[in-house]
Amino acid sequence: MVMELDLRGLYCPMPVFRTREEIMKVPIGSTISVIADDPAAAEDIPRWAKRSGNEVLDVKKDGEEVRILIRRLK
Amino acid sequence: MMSDKKKMLYVQTSGMDTPERLYAPFILSMTAVAMGMEASVYFLIKGITVLKKGEAEKVKIGAFPTLKEVMDQAIKAGVKLYACSQSCELLGMPKVNLVSGVSVAGAATLNDLVLESDGVLYF
Q1: CATH number of A3-71
Q2: Which of A1, A21, B16, B56 has the fewest beta carbons under 10 Å from its own?
Q3: Locate the UPF0033 domain: which residues (chain A) (predicted)?
């Protein structure tokens, strides 16, 4: 099961903070799907994920929005 | 995406009110690319004012080409340009007015770029 995290309406640095908070709530190995409309999120969240030792599975832009799949590895 | 190339990052906080400070990051980053490195310029605070469409054309000092020409050369050379999203908010500059070839980014990106770069210069 993939946890959905809707971060639309939040702006830098909140999408990164919320992603960090929420990923800690799922077991290691599981995946979260983040949707955001902050234009910085498509760069910021994948960079945060890699830097924090997690895995970015997919980044998909759709107009103003971006959807990012992250697997919690630690 | 991993590369053996050395990386340089230039952080530009100076804006249109100090035109003499605007050329250096473009010239240095292009030179870094010519030296076989990867180069990025991150614009924040007043730095983003040069990224507004139509502004770089207005900067021309002495025998230098316009800033727009230098910016276009840098983009063509493969220099990556980043604009701080919250600086756009701070200065009331809509992100749709940014010149093309610029990525909008935020705090996590700047921190990450500083850590992954071999050298960082601030203007």
Answers
A1: 3.30.110.40
A2: A1
A3: 5-29
- Subunit contact B107:A16, Cβ cutoff 8 A: yes
pTM: 0.93
Whether the Cβ atoms of residue B18 and residue B63 lie closer than 8 Å to each other: no
Residue type, B19: P
User: A25 catalytic, yes or no?
Assistant: no
Q: Which domains does chain B have, with CATH numbers?
A: 7-122 (3.40.1260.10)
Residue B106 has its nearest CB partner, among A13, A50, A51, at A13
Alpha-carbon gap: B107 to the closest alpha carbon of chain A (Å): 6
Return the half-sphere exposure (C-beta side, CA atoms, 13 A cut-off) of residue B17: 4
- By CA distance, what is A38's nearest residue in B? B85
Which residues of A lie inside 8 Å of B (Cβ-Cβ)?
A: 11-13, 16, 38-41, 43-45, 47-48, 50-51
Report pLDDT digits (tens) over A9-62: 999 999 999 999 999 999 999 999 999 999 999 999 999 999 999 999 999 999
